[in-house]
Amino acid sequence: MRTIKRDLDALENSGAPIWSRPGPGGGYGLAVEGSLPPVSLSPAQAVALMAAVSAAPDAPYADLAAAGIQKIMDVLDPKTRARADELAHRVWVNALPSSSRATKSALEEAMAEQRVLRISYTSGDETTTTRDAEPVLFAATNGQCYLVGWCRLRNAMRWFTVSRIERASVTRTACVGHTIHEVGEPPANARPVHARSG
Asked: Higher model confidence: residue 15 or residue 145?
């Protein structure tokens, strides 16, 4: 009984739509509209995901990625999970200090909702300005993470180094529709993120 309840908890924590009904004729089940895709990762694949997220804490949506990895770990079979945990102790990363969670949350929300950001930004010459920017894309290249957006102060597309954004808040103003084509081609050492390769 304890094993079944633990497995049900793991399924529920992974986001599976579980229902329960007490009493005679009751039980547990998976909601009709829901489905649980098979999760079949090797220990090395699981650790690769953990290492990638740990090494890039300023990457866009890194906290959500970490939560997603935890969901995957929760539904792995116990033997694979134990082997992944053992291997994870053999992988060390030394990431740069991360931006504040509040700042990253604002950037991520503004990008997803396509709303104007108000940022306090310190440039390379240590000048701090407050700007409104329309987020167009995130770029991680040369060990830095950037917010690329239309700067309303400069009336031009700008690459803002995320670690130099001191504060950020999402305004109620919708972006006017600047596109990634206005940014140009990605740098030679960068490429768009796709869920599938090829």
From this structure: 145
